[in-house]
Amino acid sequence: MGEDYPRNLIELERRFASEEECTEYLHALRWPGGFECPKCKGETAWQTSRKLWVCKRCQYHVSITAGTVFEGSHLPLTTWFKAMWHVTSQKNGMSALGLQRVLDLGSYRTAWMLLHKLRRAMVRPGRDRLHGVVEVDEAFWGAKESHLRGRLVEEKALIAVAAEEDGAGIGRIRMALIPDTSRNTLHSFISNSVEPGSTIRTDGWRAYLQMKGYEHDRQVQRQRPTGEYLVPRVHLAVSLLKRWIMGTHQGAISHAHLDDYLNEFTFRFNRRKSRFRGKLFFRLAQIAVDVSPAPYKSLVAPQYIGLLE
Description:
Strand order of the largest sheet: 6-5-4-7-8
Largest sheet: 5 strands, mixed
Helix content: 25-40%
Shape: globular
Distance between the termini: 39 Å
Radius of gyration: 22 Å
Strand content: 5-15%
Number of helices: 10
Order of helices and strands: HHEEEHHHEEEHEEHHHH
CATH superfamily of the domain at 133-240: Ribonuclease H-like superfamily/Ribonuclease H
Number of strands: 8
Oligomer: single chain
C-alpha cells in the first residue's frame, strides 16, 4: 500500500462513511502483502459473518483490530478515523474537551481515552534512531522549586531531550520522562535514542562521561551564564514543547501522563515539514495497526480514575 490518504475532511467523511470502508483501509495497512496469521504466519484465510478472519492453517480467529490500538473499543471505526483526522490536521493538536465537542461525544472520558490511545500510537515500534551530531540535555517541567539547586527535583518532572543537528537548524528529536540524571539513566536514554557511532554533544555534566560507542563532544560552560549556547537545539525544542503544552493544553498535564504528551509533541515536530496534513493521518493510522493495545486502565493512574468517570 502506497501513501494513500484523504486530502481534506470532506474527502475523509466521503471515503470512510461506513465500518466496511474503514476496515478495508486498516486491512491494507496491517497486511499490505495480504493476510498473515498473527499466530502461525499462515497466509490464507476466509471471513466469517461476524467479520472475523479465520486462518486456513491453524483455524485461529482474528479481527482486523485485534492486537492494535483499536482493540477492545466499543466506538465505531468511523469515529476513530474522524478522531485521527482532527488530531493530525490541527497544527497544534487539540485537547480532550475540543475533541469531545468536534466529534459530539457523550463524555469527556471517551474523548480523553481516544486521545491517549492515539498518543500511544505516535511512537512507531522499532523506529530509526537519531544519527550524526546529536545534542543531548535535560529539562524540567512543573512549578519552580527555589529551595533546590542544580539538577535536583522534587515536584518537577525531568525530561531527557536529544536533537539532531541539521545545518544551522534542528533535524529530528527524541524526548522521554526520566527519573534522575544519573549516568545509567542518561546513557540508557542515549543508547535508545541515538545510533552508535554518532557524535553526542552535551554540557559539562559529569554523568555524560564514559559513553561507549559514541564520540563525545563535551561543551564545558565557562563564561556564558546558561547552557542555552552549549546545546541550542535542545533548548529551542524544549521552549517549543513548553509553549505547546501551555497553549494547547493550558499547562494542565499531570506527570503521570507527561510521556504520552512528549510522544505527541515528538510526532508532530518530526513531521512539521510535511506538506499535506493528510499524510500525518496516514502515518498515525499506519502505526496504530502496528502497536500493542492500550487498555483504559493502563492509561489512567489509579488516583485519576474517578476524575474521568
